[in-house]
Structure formats: C-alpha cells, structure tokens
Design goal:
The structure is a homodimer. By secondary structure, the first copy, chain A, is of the alpha/beta class. Chain A is built from 13 helices and twelve strands. Chain A binds a DNA duplex through α2 and α4.
DNA sequence: TGGAATTGATAAACCGGTATAGCTCCTGCA
DNA sequence: TGCAGGAGCTATACCGGTTTATCAATTCCA
C-alpha cells in the first residue's frame, strides 16, 4: 500500500489513532510496550507524516522562508548566498525543516511575500538579510507576528533576534593592516548607503582615520555593482593625489577595480593595494590574487537557522548571537606603498 | 480578527461554507450576485486560503521542489543557478506556487530528499538539473510517481518531460567560428564526463573536426572546478604543439584558464583564443573580456516551471520543449591565430 | 476495605478547506 | 395542471493528523 496513514497503523496494531499519534510523538499516554510495537509497525510500513495534515492540526508547518531582494543580475556571482543557504539548510536539516527560497526585485515585493506567507501559513518563520536603516520589514514582521531572525543586523532596542559579525572590528583590522604597511591615503568603495553594515563600515573607517594618521580616507557608496565599482575606481585613480590603497565592500567590486587599475597602467600591488571585504573563489582566480576578509558564511547561516528555531519555539525571547570575527587573508594584492 | 476562515466569510455573507468555496474558486454552484458579494466580503476581510488546509483536501500543495546536488564550494560562483532560480520563480509566481530549494552534497542525498518530499507530500513536483547518463533519479522519480521536469536533458524513450537547448548546435557554432578565424588546433576543456550535456558537447567537437579540417581537437574532462581547469590548461600550453584556441565548458574554468595563460606569458588573444561555454558577469569582468556563449538562463527556468505545471496538471503527457538556441557573444579573447 | 489518584487507552472533536449528495424552489413544456 | 429538470444553495463527509474528554482498570493510601 502506498502512503500509509496513522489509521492504517492503528488498524494493524489494533489500537486507536490517538494511541498511534501519542506513540509517534513520544508523548505519554501509551505504555512502553505498545509504543514500541507501534513504532515498529510504522517503521515497517515506512510511514511518514503528511506535512499538510500535521500543519493543519498543530499550526506549524515545519518550514521556514528566506527572501532575497536583489535583482537577479547582481546575485549569483556572489558565493556569499550559496554558502549562507547551505549553512541555513544544515541548521534546519537536524529538525528536518524545509526552506522556502524566493528571489525578488525589491523590498516592497519582499514584504508582499511575507504577508502572503503569513496569511497562507506557509512558513513558521523567516530569515532576513541586508538589513537597512529604519528597515520597514522589521515592523511589518512584528505586525504579522511572524518569527524572524536578522542576519548581520546587530540588535538594538525593539529589534528582532539576530546573528551578527562585528563589521566594525573587521573594517578596523583591514585599515590598521594597510596603515601598518605604510599607507596613508586609503579609499573605501562602499556598498549601498542604506544598508546597516555599510554604515557601520563607513563609520569604522572614519573613526580610525585620525588615530592612524590617514591623510585622506573617503568612503564612496555604490549600488554593489561591478559597473559602479569600476566607475568609482576610475575616478579615484584619476585624481592628482590618488589613493595608495582601496578597500572594496564586495569581491565583485574589487575585481572590477583591479580591472580598471590594470587598464590604467596602475600596478597592483606596486602602485595600488587592493583589499576585498568578502572572500570567494573570485578573489583567488585573479592575478594578482586579492587580499580579502574571510567570513565563515556557512557557519553564519547555520547559526541563523538555530536562532530562528529557538525563536519559533519561544517567540518572547530575543536572541542576539555573535558570530566569530572574520579574519584577513593576505594574498598578492597588498604591499607597502612605493 | 486575525486570519479569517471561509466559515467566517460564510457567516458574514449568511451562506454556507460550501457556497463560499464555490465562489472563491470560480466554479458553478452560486449565482453571480452571491458570488460577487462573497468575493467582496473575502476581499474586505483580506482572506487567504490556508495552504495546509487546501493541501489536505485537494491533495496538492502548490509547491514545487528543486534540489541541487553539488558541493556548496563549487556552487555560487556560477550565476547560472541564480538566474535559473529567478526564472523558475517567475514561471511559478503566476500561479502563486512556492519553491522549495535544497542544496545537497551528492545524488544519493538528492534521492533521499525526493523520497521524503514524496512521502510527506511536501511538493507537487520537482525540477531536475545536471542530468547524467543512466541517471538513477529518473527511475526513482517514476517509482515515486512524482511529476518532474528535466532541465537540459533532451528527452528520449521513456524519459521525463524536459526543457532543453541544443548543446550540439551551440558547440558547433563555437568551433565553426574558431575554424573560420583560421584555428586548426582547438582544445576543449569539458566538464564532468557523466553529464549528458558534456557528452553531447564532446561528440559535437569530434564530429565537426574532420569537416573543418582541424588537425587536433582533444576534449579533456574535468570536475568543473577552477583548479582542474587551470591544471589542464597548464598541460595544454606546455605541449610542443600547443592549441591556438581553447573552449571551456564553464565560465569559471575559462577564467582560471586565462589566468594560467597570463602566468605563462601566453598572450590572449594573440597566441591563444579563449571561449567560454557559459556567459556571466565573470567573463565580462576579465581583461581581456571573454568571448562566451550566452544562454537565456532566466527564460530556461521560466519554461521549466511552465512545463512542470503542465505536467502536474496532466501527468500522462510528456512535454519536451526546446529553448531558444544560445548565441555566441564575441568579445576580446578571440582573434585569428598568428 | 473503600475511595481517590494514576495509568493506558479510546472515541470524538477539531484544524480549514474541498467535494458531493440532497434539498428547495423556479421555469419550461407537454 | 403536472412533472421533469436545472439553478442555487445547504448539510455533511472527508483529507490525516493532533488534542481533549472520557472511561475502565489498576494502584495507592488512609
């Protein structure tokens, strides 16, 4: 027989549906002997719970969602999401909870998805990425009473549970390393200005500048695209007093920047040092290979999944878990200025 | 009131649950006036169907699955999947069907997922990628009676429904272009040998060689990684009679190959022309930018979703839809041999 | 030894929809 | 005038689980 139900098992075991349910869920109400017998029969008939039936009764769907609001064009080059996803899954698989993934164009669409998911009871909770300043999603999710975890957003008052790494410390470690090499003109090609992590990184550069004796340390924001990364680099390198080092907020922009430098005859690392804030295969494929900040993205995802599950279990607590600090992997693109 | 049910609507409208169900699903059984009234009330109460309840009764979950069996490490760099995913979603969103995504390590794990999905009724169907020769997943899915669509696998006898592009024609167009430029020693750095598309591409090169007067046209298989792509390139360029052009089965390998050429002092495109079988931002970021075969991956995904929905609606038919032929985008990495 | 508490089980309600049998009223036609 | 047939709607069973009220049999304790 295909797809046995608990009624079938009850029949075979000569007990009631309720007894089977108790036995399968490890809750009191049946004797150990009976439980054992029921479990054996269920195993034998290779029974699996019908997810919809369970969801209907227990009002939990054993499924969580994740929406990525970025144009597909800029996605995909970044191993970041692939690793994050794998991590999230590994965190969920232990409880055999499934993941719904959606890629949408913008935040408005993302919020629509949350509304739909909430009203259709499709997920028990969601994982948020790319937190912005005054992010509208936070209030929306609270209103929907949909458990959520923010990745990368350090929690403040009234914030959602989160898993975060210290962007400030990470940026400081990069700038301090460059300053120690002797660089005094360091530019920072940042990402979208309204992302919280972008702001934190910009502030870190700004705060460190006087202490490290940096002459000039501009942070220039972009849309994270290779095109803008290249354009800004071109502008920076065309200045009379050009920077001797550039820090890029993503690997893609760093690679685009390297291309511009080569095109303009600026030697890397001779005339210009380059650091990428994100590591990936991309940075390693380049010549010279790029010095980059490595984060354990997989672990990040795994932790986010764990925190989400705990939040679903008890929505009153607000967990803020700190992830291990990223480390700088030095490769060929950095050297003392000449 | 939060989360109204059809019973609430029925109450408000002064009709029975059944009438509401008829009205909301656009099926006969209620008068136009009543239907209109019910719809208005449902709208007003912002009612949405409870997915689990619907799934339980109608035995369809409005959800499809996709499993990608590749180590997370090699994933992510390839924009291919991101675009494919976006396309699949756009094909599904019309019917507001959700997508379950899973990244696993190998095919065994993938099959396990299908079994679980089938027994738990979590998906109505699945989308398969990376079809291999004698792919065990095909029989498994048939046994599970889980509707499926294969992406990239040209359907034969007893095959699953599919969406495919003509790999053979595509490869021929590349080789013919190179031959027309004057190349006679063309090497092909292929992907994993047991992928069907790899085999078709290899055969295309082999078949075209005599007709085009190619002196030497070896196809060398790899595991799709940048490391093996680089290693094979190193070997090819160390030969006494080295190829004047190399075709790579993926953008990542092509980029790795370009790196090796630069490292060995082989000028591109002066001494060596390079073509990538897949296009992406990667190929455009390089210097020189790589000539590449552009496929409309987004559309590919969209079509796969459509075919899957049709297959779910009527599992007896086996659709094989051909996607538009890919086109060669010529950039800076190809030129006549010197 | 009798009544209370506990254990192990059952029957039935319930979750929120869909599907179906059946009922009522109205219309059309012989 | 009578009756077949259909439109419009209701009542109810059902999907496959979980949960609760109930109950019989046993154990505990005064």
């Amino acid at each position: 027989m295909a797809r046995p139900t608990i009624a079938d098992i009850a029949n075979r075991a000569g007990v009631s549906k309720g007894a089977v349910s108790f036995a399968l869920n490890g809750r009191p109400g049946v004797s150990d002997a009976t439980r054992e017998r029921i479990l054996r029969i269920a195993e034998q008939m290779s029974w699996r719970p019908h997810s919809a039936a369970r969801a209907l009764g227990a009002s939990r769907v054993d499924s969580v969602g994740m929406v990525i609001a970025r144009p597909a064009r800029t996605l995909g080059v970044e191993p970041f999401f692939a690793h994050l996803l794998s991590g999230v899954q590994s965190g969920l698989s232990a409880e055999s909870i499934s993941l719904q993934l959606l890629i949408v164009e913008d935040t408005a669409a993302e919020i629509e998805v949350y509304r739909r998911w909430a009203s259709e009871h499709r997920v028990d909770g969601v994982i948020l990425v790319d937190l912005t300043v005054k992010d509208p999603r936070v209030d929306e999710l609270k209103a929907l009473e949909l458990p959520a975890v923010v990745i990368g957003g350090r929690g403040g008052k009234g914030a959602l549970p989160s898993v975060w790494a210290d962007d400030r410390e990470a940026m400081l470690s990069i700038v301090e390393y460059l300053a120690a090499l002797g660089h005094r003109r360091i530019a920072h090609v940042a990402g979208t200005p309204n992302f919280q992590h972008t702001q934190r990184r910009i502030r870190a550069v700004k705060d460190a500048a006087p202490r490290l004796g940096l002459v000039d340390a501009p942070s220039l924001t972009t849309d994270f695209s290779d095109a803008e990364g290249a354009a800004i680099t071109r502008k920076l390198l065309s200045q009379a007093q050009r920077p001797t080092a550039i820090v890029y907020d993503s690997d893609v922009m760093a690679v685009a920047g390297l291309g511009v430098a080569m095109e303009m005859g600026v030697a890397v690392p001779g005339d210009l040092s380059i650091v990428a804030f994100d590591d990936s295969i991309l940075t390693q494929l380049m010549h010279p290979a790029l010095t980059a900040l490595s984060r354990d993205t997989f672990d990040f995802g795994r932790q986010a999944a764990e925190v989400l599950l705990e939040t679903i279990a008890d929505p009153t607590q607000v967990i803020n878990r700190r992830s291990p600090d990223p480390v700088l992997t030095v490769r060929e693109s950095t050297a003392p200025p000449t």
